[in-house]
Structure formats: C-alpha cells, structure tokens
Amino acid sequence: MAKRKRLMPAQGSYLSEPLETKSALGAPAGLGHSAAPIAKVASEASVHAALQELSDTLETARNKGLIIAEIPLGAIDEGYLVRDRMEQDEDEMSALVESIRSRGQQTPIEVLALDDGRYGLISGCRRLTALRRLHAETSDSRFATARALVVRADTAESAYVAMVEENEIRVNLSHYERARIVTKALAEGVFPSLKASLQTLFANVPRAKRSKIGSFVTLVDELDDVLRHPTAISEKLGLALVREMNEDEAFTSRLRTALSEHIRETAAEEIDVLQSSLQGATDAVEPTVTPVVDASKQTVDVPVRSVTNTVQVLPNVKLGFSAERKRIELTGNGVDTGLMQALEEWLKQR
C-alpha cells in the first residue's frame, strides 16, 4: 500500500501576497497589479484636465455673476456709484428689515469686484441698508455679511447700465430720478456727452419715454439744488415746467425765488409752489379775454398761446413759432439792435 502524504495547512499570508503576472512577452511584469507607466501618466493627465475644466467653469461662473458669495458688510462700498434712487420709503424699508430678520436675505445684492479687495455696490442698496440696520441693532453674525453676486464690469459705464436696468425692473423710478442719474453719470466722466449718457443708460426703453427723460434733465440742471421733493413731480407737471423754461428764460429765476421763499415740509407743499408758479406764468403770457360765444354754433373761442414751439438758435437767442397765430418770436439777451438790423437785411434779400 502506498504511503499517504500529509497535507500541510494553508498559509494565511498566501492570498494576501501579490501574484506575479507576466507581460504579453512572458516576462515578469512586477508584483501586484500595478499599471504600466504610460497608463499611470494618462490617468494623472485625465484627472488634471478634469480639475482644470472644473476650475475654469467656476471662474467663468464667478465672472458672470452666477455664484453667490458671502461678503462682510464692511467690505462693500455703497457709494461706488451715484445712486439713481433718491428716496427710500420708510414703511417699505421697515417691512424689508422685518422680512430679513425673520427669513434672512432671500435675494442677493450685486457688487463689482474692485482692485483693493473691496466691492462696489451696483444694485441692492435697500437690502444692504436693511442688513446694516439689523447688524447694528442685534450684533447677530447672521447679518454681518451680505449674500452677493460678484460681477466684473469692464468699465464704469457697464456698472451704471447694470444698476439702471436692475432698478428699472424692481422699482418704478420717477422721471426726475432717471434724468438725475443721466446727469450724474455725465458729471462723473462715465460718458462723453449727455446724449451718450441718455441713450446708453436707457437704451432699452421706448424712444418717447427716453425723450421725456431728456426733458427732465433741464429740471435737474436748473432746480436740483433747491428742490426738496423732486420725485413727487409728475410727468405732466415736469414737462409743463420744462416747456415754460424753454419759452421764457426768466421763468427759471422766478421759480427758484418762489421755492426759496416758501417752507416746503411736504411734497404736496412743494408741488403747490411749482403749480402756482406755472399758473402765474401762463396768466402773464395769456391775456384775459372774455370768451366769445357763437349762439348759432354753441362753441367757445378760447385764446391760444402766441408761441407753441421754441428752439435755441443762438447761445442767447431762442426762436419761437406759432402756426395757429402765424407768429415768429425771437427772445433772449442776444436780441438787440444789431440782430434786428441783420434780420431785416436778410429778409430784404429773400
């Protein structure tokens, strides 16, 4: 009988040791399942490319203002741009404060990254003001930072356009506020001319509306330093005031005097002064005429103003024309004997 062989117990380390593998040529390829050098390089390159793509995507999103950042309130400069909104309703502000107190900041503000590590406020002035009030009142860390979309505007022009567009969407600005930001942006040197400022900032509004904003620029230029409640001026009243200013150059001086002589604690009081001055100018130009009634036709002949269209033809001369009255008028400090003689000679040669 054959002698039985004794089996040796299994070695516990056998399965834990790497197996030898052979290459396609039959030579040992080393211990374990280590990949070939070219595979390792390709793997590392793939990982690097994926990380770079992710980094580029995040940077692009950040530059486009698609990523919300938490920015300390002290790092935000709300005076970076001249604000287009002149007044903040206290009732609305109180409601916003209470909303942020209970629910937190729901809508991010929009800021511009500056070179010094700070951020210039583009839009969200009311939200920022509410956060500052809450932090000053409570010292709560929840209100120490503002959620913000960080954008990178190439020029100050782009920043102003962004502010105007955001506020046009969120709040109905008055014509006076719109005209004021046009003049302030021009004064800051953002735009080369008033026309460029108006057309760029309000490029997306209808032409008729843009024309009215341009008319209100006259009010801003002539009365901004004396008006106390300019946002209360309606479109109709504002355009009537501008028309009177263009037709009677002494009207602006009389209007400024009237405003300085009256105490105007409320918007209604200021509007009364403006309307009274406008009515006084109209009464001075239009003579008191008793309406003539045609009994057969039952119509009333109402006198019309002598001049309806006025343009600035020389630095100190305005030309007015009324088709109804067949009348042309020249007014202004430049109207003198020399102008009269020159005009007379020109008419003779026609």
Question: What do these coordinates show?
Answer:
The protein has 350 residues and is an alpha+beta fold. Among the domains are: 51-155, Conserved hypothetical protein from pyrococcus furiosus pfu- 392566-001, ParB domain (Alpha-Beta Complex), CATH 3.90.1530; 174-285 and 314-338, Arc Repressor Mutant, subunit A, CATH 1.10.10.2830. It has helices at residues 37-63, 90-103, 125-138, 156-170, 175-187, 194-201, 207-223, 235-247, 251-261, 267-285, 337-348, and strands spanning 68-72, 76-77, 109-113, 119-123, 145-151, 292-294, 299-301, 309-314, 317-322, 327-331. The strands form 3 sheets. The chain has a 5-stranded mixed beta sheet with strand order 1-5-3-4-2. A 3-stranded antiparallel beta sheet has the order 8-9-10, with no helix packed on it. It has a two-stranded antiparallel ribbon with strand order 6-7. The longest helix has 27 residues, at 37-63. The N and C termini lie far apart (150 Å). Mean pLDDT is 76; it is low at 19-27 and 285-308.
